[in-house]
Amino acid sequence: MEKPVFEIVIVGGGVVGAAIAHELSHYALDVVLLEKEEELSFGVSKANSGIIHPGTQNPAGSLKGRLCVEGNRLIREMSRPLDLDFKEVGELIVAFDEMETSQLWQMKMEAELLGVSGLEVVSRGWLRDNEPNLNRDAVAALYAPSAGIISPYRFVYALSEAAALNGVEVRTSTKVEWIEQMQGDSEGGRARFVVGTSAGELMARFVINCAGLHADDVASMVAAPRFRIQPRKGEEYILDKKRRYLTRHLLFPVPTPESKGILVTRTSDGNPMIGPTAYKVKDKEDLSTTDEGLRMVLQVAQRLVPAIDRADIIAYFAGVRPVAGEDFFIESDRRIPGFVNVAGIQSPGLTAAPAIGRDVARLLEQSGVEFERKPQRRSKRSRSIHLFSMPLQEARRLVEADAECGEIVCRCESVSLKEIKEAIAEGARTLDGVKFRTRAGAGRCHGSFCTCRVMRVLAEETDRPITAISKRGKGSEMVVEDRADGRT
Ligand SMILES: Cc1cc2nc3c(=O)[nH]c(=O)nc-3n(C[C@H](O)[C@H](O)[C@H](O)COP(=O)(O)OP(=O)(O)OC[C@H]3O[C@@H](n4cnc5c(N)ncnc54)[C@H](O)[C@@H]3O)c2cc1C
User: Fold this and answer.
1) What does DSSP assign to residue 420?
2) Nearest Cα to 250, choosing from 407, 70, 57, 62?
3) In this structure, are 134 and 178 located in the same domain?
4) Which pLDDT tens digit goes with each residue over 386-408?
5) Residues 170 and 57 both lie in one domain
6) Rounded to the nearest whole angstrom, what is the distance from the C-alpha of residue 339 to the centroid of ligand 1?
7) What separation in Å is there between the alpha carbon of 459 and the centre of ligand 1?
8) 214 a catalytic residue
9) Are residues 256 and 330 in the same domain?
10) What does pTM read for this prediction?
11) 186-200 in b/e burial notation, b at 16+ Cβ within 10 A?
12) Beta carbons of 253 and 259 less than 8 angstroms apart
């Protein structure tokens, strides 16, 4: 069978792959994005703090620092056309004594060298007026107004949907298993690689490896990798929404060798969140949380905001950072023309992703890709409904116009049947996919009330049996058939 030929194959559908796809979708190029999981954003990009960093915590001169500052700016620009739920809330790096205060001045200077603007070292009086629940022992803070928060997975979906609308092919459940470099001129010079996947083979002139924790495994399919991924785990703890007014800004301690930035933040949906820890693990898939992690996170968070109580915690998760040395590792591999590694994208990768997209496009241009702007670009389709974040009047109007908006499936987070169906129409195929898009199942009862209903809607809308509905893809199905008597 003839293999499809693409100019560019992107391996990995996290925020980095989605941002690269989005950037390339502005041009007349044949691009395909391959993701091994059933949905996009099921890797590192689903489990992080959701902070759009201003660039205050990176060494001047670092690649990640430059891309963080540029990414922060680009996300603002994209916010309206992509309907992102980005909220600029500002951050405070809090000092408790004179020595820490002098560190703030040093951090300010380094960040200004990177181009971060609007920074200010604020006084104890300012903190009392503007962050009332902050520990009264705080003496000063570095204020960065351009810090913000975003829903990390909805960011990935917005980027990938816009890319798909503009011609990028997105294939999920497609694991890249091997890559073969072709010898000589093939397909009239249009292809240099054959890419073998769990769903068939295809050919490509360029392969962009942004496989997150598995970027070294993918790189080793063509040559010995020039980097190794060292997994570094971070545990995070989510607090009840009723505590949403606990803080006004994102609060960080001054980094120390013991604590590299356990912070008090909140999700873009309004839940306060504390964490993350940062420690090396051997297993890339180890997403367990620990008593030690909880103890450490609570200790640092309570030093910042003493009113935080262990009983406020309603959920927890861990994410694993794909670390490859101190900085990001982005390079066109000279040994293998056409192969680009975008690896080691640890924090602030979520923030930097759109800037990484631009850098990769520049790399491709230098390697001979012709960037011809498309005459017409379609933007994202109509705005998603989120009843939980809507003024009551607006929600009432929607319910009057469409009864499905009034049929509440998830009571904790006020998610309607309409929202669930809309998420499925956008591409959700699993319970997590629905949860990430709508918040159904993300509330205090953890889906005890709505899971069965969401499963039924998923089965009906995608015309699959209930046994095919899973939490996060193959192997996590929720209902099994008893083969002996055919009952489920
Ligand atoms: C605890 C924690 C907190 C963080 N907080 C922040 C923050 O607040 N702000 C910030 O800016 N950054 C933060 N980060 C960093 C940020 O989350 C990452 O930099 C970013 O998500 C990396 O995205 P990615 O696309 O490179 O990786 P991923 O999201 O992991 O995407 C890679 C994708 O490749 C797929 N894949 C792997 N192998 C294959 C294959 N063979 N074939 C096909 N597909 C494959 C995977 O399934 C995965 O979906 C945090 C990270 C952690 C862990």
Assistant:
1) H
2) 57
3) no
4) 777 788 888 888 888 899 999 99
5) yes
6) 20
7) 29
8) no
9) no
10) 0.95
11) eeeeebbbbbbbeee
12) yes
